[in-house]
Amino acid sequence: MKNIAIFASGTGSNARKMIEYFANHPQIRVSLVVSNKATAPVLAMAADHGIPTLVLSRTRFYETEELLTDLAGIDLIVLAGFLWLVPPYLVAAFPQRIVNIHPALLPKYGGKGMYGAHVHTAVHAAGEKESGITIHFVDTAYDEGQIIFQARCVLTPEDDPAAIARKVLALEHAHFAPVIAQLLTNN
Ligand code: GAR
């Protein structure tokens, strides 16, 4: 059995999709959900599914390496809307074993401050004719690790940032879990 830890900061719709996708999987399970926000809806949702959860403080994450103990037995860390930069000790402990999803076609619209609605507002302001998703390995810089998978959607001039967000989120929900499954079953 391969074990996934999902890290999420917010709503957790991608985390929910992933938990549902792997619920009855013979080889892969979501065995931990970590959030930096005690009130994040993702934690209650995970608990409803019987998945252990962990609330991470900034001090514990950045000033200790205690998290490594909590992650014993984890094969892959999946960042699903997790907004804190991953510290070097964690990248070193999980080489090519931390994956992030970004709501745009990297290398465009990535980097610090480029998350969630900020991304879609920037894509809209630039008059882009397409956007999409990028699933990539995580290194110590925001949004710069090796790209694993991208999917695209066409944008029309009528698409406002909210419409772009809906199109991109639909791609995330369709592709994230299957890409993770493929990654884990090929390794
Ligand atoms: C997702 O769209 C994800 O791509 C984005 O946050 C959203 C989380 O939604 N991540 C980033 O912007 C990272 N830079 P969710 O909480 O509903 O899964």
What attributes characterize this protein structure?
36% helix; 187 residues; seven-stranded mixed beta sheet; 7 helices; binds glycinamide ribonucleotide; alpha/beta; 22% strand
How would the blueprint of this fold be written?
Elements: E1 2-7, H1 13-22, E2 28-35, H2 41-48, E3 53-55, H3 58-63, H4 67-70, E4 76-79, H5 88-93, E5 98-102, H6 117-125, E6 130-137, E7 147-154, H7 161-185
Structure commentary:
The structure is a single chain. This protein is of the alpha/beta class and 187 residues long. The chain has one domain: Formyl transferase, N-terminal domain (Rossmann fold, 3-Layer(aba) Sandwich). It is 36% helix and 22% strand. It has 7 helices and 7 strands. It has helices at 13-22, 41-48, 58-63, 67-70, 88-93, 117-125, 161-185, and strands at 2-7, 28-35, 53-55, 76-79, 98-102, 130-137, 147-154. It has a 7-stranded mixed β-sheet with strand order 3-2-1-4-5-6-7, with helices on one face. Helix 5 links the parallel strand 4 (76-79) and strand 5. Helix 1 (13-22) runs parallel beside helix 7 (161-185) and helix 6 (117-125) packs across helix 7 (161-185). The longest helix is centred in the last third of the chain and has 25 residues, at 161-185. It is globular. The mean pLDDT is 95. Residues 8, 10-15, 80-81, 101-103, 115-116, 119, 169, 172 line the site of glycinamide ribonucleotide (GAR).
